[in-house]
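Hi L.,

As promised, Aromatic amino acid transaminase:
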Amino acid sequence: MVQDTNGIHITQGPDRTGSNTPQHDSSLHKGYYLSDKARESEIDGIRGLLIHEKPGVVSFVSALAGKPNPHTFPFESITLNLKAPLGSRTDDPNAAPTQLTIEGPDLDAALQYGPTPGLANFRAWLEDFQSAVHGRAKGDQWTVNVGTGSQDLMAKTFGVVLNPGDPVLIETPVYAGILPPLRNLKAKTIEVEVDEQGISPDSLEQILGNWPADQKRPKVVYVNPVGCNPSGCSHSKERKLAVLEICKKYNLLILEDDPYYYLAQQRIPSYFELETQVFPNGGHVVRFDSFSKLLAAGMRLGFATGPKEILHAIDVVTAGASLHSSAVSQAVAYRLVKHWGVEGFSNHAQHVADFYAERRKRFEDLAHKHLDGLATWVSPVAGMFLWIDLSPAGVEDSYSLVREEALAKGVLAVPGFAFFPNGRKSSHVRTSFSLVDLDNDAELGMERLASAIRDWQKRNGKA
């Protein structure tokens, strides 16, 4: 790690120099946010021709692309048996499930190689959905593509907007899953501090306003704005607008990783929704949504929404790596959301949010019962985590406490250093309430964690 005289922490990569003057939005040239590799890459010749297959065109391309004949597929149909809506379930063993069927051309498409951005009908539904939820008119400025989970899309996005060694601004503590692709790029990770409302505009302005003149400026900032993993913090509407103003001043692209957006009982307008209040033409937010928390994590489906140029660059990477995400998973999700409609999806999401809110309350009550006086935390409005600060107990680095006292007591939590790009010491531990048995294990775990903290205090003369 290198710390310059302005206090900016720079890790993961060699020094690079470049222009120190941010470009204004009105002077952006085509491809400004794309990496050098992304500007030079395009989908290969065969897959690039597939977009021209349409009624009236006799195509010999599909066979060249290796598409098998669907007559050989052994599947006649896929039937989905749906549970009753989450808010109206009963224990009646005779309750009949709602059945949805995928068959005919929809099944053929699900079982076949598909378009790299996603099945056309699914993407069309998602565009309508994003337009309705975030109040963005459909048009030429943005689109949606589908990936193998939002993690897959984010990893590819880093590759298409960053050159090796480029600086990138990251709200910290940060979701640890984004760190491996950044390390692979040898990116310089710049930690932006957070407070109870998430990323701090003051910290962001201080870093950018004091940026060393001989170092290449960042053009990307990563945020996890609702129920942040791990901090639990959520960016208010006012906070998001303040961050957008700074992004306008320094011409930054926002990567909005928002898998817990629908787990908030009261939804906060997204960066994607708010950006046109600061950038009238949009184009400065790439948003990542996930179906993992709402439908099924094993479906491995997420979707990105943002500028067409950037999403096309992601598609180029996907085409060369895996061709496309699972068309079967897409077809299952599409059949479900088509059945629900936007209103039905929103109702389901609200019930999921209520479910986790109740779990959070019970888990947090147990934490207060056993940890008050030893720890503090931000009460999350969404997400699945309590980011517990042990500094009131005198803990500066939670790692040894987790690996020694806590493990010996039979309780595990994630030590905070794992969520800092530079691996610095942290007084925090991350606990999750999504799956733990709230009737038995949760209280036992809190009792053991409190006991472990007290043992640590004795060992370190803090009692």
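The longest strand covers residues 188-195.

Thanks again for sending the construct details.

K.
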